[in-house]
Every structure is written in C-alpha cells, then in structure tokens.
Amino acid sequence: MSTHPPAIPSFARLIPLLGAMIAITPFAIDMSLPAMTTLATQFHTPMSDIQQSLSLYLIGYSAGMFVFGPLADKWGRRRFVIYGLLGFMLSSTALALTSNIELFLLLRFFQAFTGAAATVVIPGYVKEIYGKDTAKGMSYVMLIMMLAPLIAPSIGSLILVLGDWNLIFAFMAVYTLIIVIVAFYKLKLPSDDILTEHSQLSFVKNYKTVLTKPGIALNIMTSFVISFAYFSYLTASPLVFMTVFGLSPEKFTLIFTTNVGALMLATAINSQLVTRFRTDTLLRIATLLATIAGVALLTVNTLGMSYQYTAAALVPLMGCLGIMSVNADTIVLMKFQKEIGTASAVIGTLKFGFGALGGPILALFSTHTAVPFAILMLSAVMLAGLLQILNRSHLIPNESL
C-alpha cells in the first residue's frame, strides 16, 4: 500500500478564484482609504464620520456572515456566492452614484452585508479541496487575497488623480462583475451537488453545534482577538499617519502597502511551514514575536519618536498577525465537517463585529498621538497569548494540526 499522501484534487485550480472572491472585502475597504479626506470634503462632514463608515462596513459584514453561514451549510454554497457577488456589485454601483452621506453609509452597510454571503463559504471550499492540509490552502487563498490591500490604496490614489472618488466604487462594481461571471461558469465542486454534504440542522441548531463543541470557545476567542488587532490597525492607520503624523496620502499609501507586503511574505512563509510544524506551535511562536513588536510600537510612540519608527515597528507586527490569523482560523475549522459555514460565520461575526469597535474605542481615548493605538494593538496581542495559554489542554489532536 502506498504511503504517499493523496494528491491535491484538480479543484485546487479554483484557489485563485476563491482568493479573488474574498478580495472584494479588502478592495472595498482599502481602496477608499486615500479618499477619506476627499469624502469628508465632498459630503461636508467631519473626518471622524467618514472614519466610522469603516466600522459600519465591518458591522454589515459581520451581520452578513452571521445570517448566511448556517444557510450555506444547509442549502449549499454556490448560490450564496452568486447572489452575494451580485448584491455587492449593485451596491457598489449605487455608491458610485450617491451624493448623500446618509445614503452613502446605508449603502456601505448593504455592500458589506451582501458581500459576506459570497465570502463566508470560502473556508468550506478550501477545506473540501485540501482536507487535512487546510492551513496550507488557507495560506494560498490569503496570499492571493492580500494582493488587494497591497494594490488597492495605490489604485484608489491613482483614481483620485485621474478623476473623482465615485470612480473607486465604479471600479469595485466592474471587478465584482468579472468575478461573478467566472464563478458562475467555473465554481462547481462536488459538495454543491451532493445533498449529503449539506447540514440537515436548522439555523439555530447549526450555531448550537458549533458553539457547544468541546474546547472550541477559547480557540474562537483567540481568532477574533487577533482580528481585532488587525482591524484596529486598518481603522486607525489613516488617522495615525495622515492626521497625527501629518503625512500625505501618497506617503500613507506607501506605508500601508509595506505592511500588507509584510502580511503577504509572512503568509507565504506560513504556507511552507504548516507542512512541517504543528499549527498551534506556529500560532504560539508568531504570538510571541508579535508581542515583542507590540512593545516596540508602544515604546517608540511613548517616547514621541518620528513616524518612521512607528512604521518600522508595524512591519513585523503585521506579519505576525497574518500568521496568527491563518493558523487560529484553521484550528477552529478543522473541528467541523458539515458546519464549516456556520463555524466561519461565528469566526467572521466576532472578527468583524469586534473589529468595528476599534474605531470608536480609539476615538474615545484619543490623545492626538499614536499611543492609544499602540496600547490597543499590544493589548490585543497579549490577550491572544493569554487565551492560548488557557487553551493548551483543549487543542485538537496532533495529526489534525
């Protein structure tokens, strides 16, 4: 009998498509970052209101994952991909045409809510394709997805040079139209047709199954605390660099792109390491390194050092957060078979829901410096480490990690 591991199915060719699908969220968030000051001027509203639109987007995305995750487990994933992408495309088109701040905020919520229908099913597809090597598959998807935040701010800045902010959302609509066409013809996996692959539980029972799984609670908490740190950076970085440090949109875009590059590099490294080391081991090592970087971030800002030091401390911190996120999510997903959409929804709802709190918390403790931001980042990483310590006795078996 052969001892070689089974080959990755031919469906692995769909990984670029899945990465492109999940990229609609960073495109929706990051392309608009350079336009925040422009939006505030156009809508005659304070910069803080535009900043909170990011939090509103995260709330909408969180709500969408909560609703659509269990439904996808029960009725199949493909229909939610198509309907979700279409909803995202239509709301992006409407955003390009709006001139009212209240309608703008409402459409941003709807854009996120519908987009969640498409993206919440992606971890389930990845697990179907890669099986026990799900962490490797998720790393590949995240690597492709991270191209979006790497290039999105630059695209947003270029669009602002060539035209108005409306074109940013028009670009999103066209991008999503292309993705939905490709998905309609190419995204067809066995689980989409085999009814026995679907959960037979109700909406509520799907959630009960996931939330009562032994040893799952601390793993899920670790995942959303890591995400809280990331979204705190995402929400606060324009304010920190463009308002506190007074950088131009172009310089901010360069710093933001550098940090996304660190995320991509770390994720690429993780995709190779997960075949050699336990997933929980990689998670603990990355958490330790992130804590060191977080201490450095707080130190340079407490001492009032220039923005270059803040940017330098963020590079290793963001890279570690990328490794932490992929491995923490994989630990949770590997515990389930038919309820992966619900598990993804639980993770996503908590991630984006608590991530939305980053902006308001930083606004509440604002000192017109980057110190509150640094404290929040370090606190989140240290809490993730504490949760891992508490969870050591509940980890899933070695062969699954």
TrEMBL record:
Q: Where is the Major facilitator superfamily (MFS) profile domain?
A: 12-397
Membrane topology term reads: Multi-pass membrane protein
- Residue ranges annotated as transmembrane are 12-29, 54-73, 80-97, 103-126, 138-161, 167-185, 215-232, 252-269, 281-300, 306-328, 340-365, 371-390
Subcellular localization, as worded in the UniProt entry: Cell inner membrane; Cell membrane
Regions annotated as coiled coil? none
Q: Which UniProt keywords apply?
A: Cell inner membrane, Cell membrane, Membrane, Transmembrane, Transmembrane helix, Transport
Pfam families in the cross-refs: MFS_1 (PF07690)
The entry sums up its family as follows: Belongs to the major facilitator superfamily. Bcr/CmlA family.
This one is known as Bcr/CflA family efflux transporter
**Organism this protein belongs to:** Shewanella surugensis
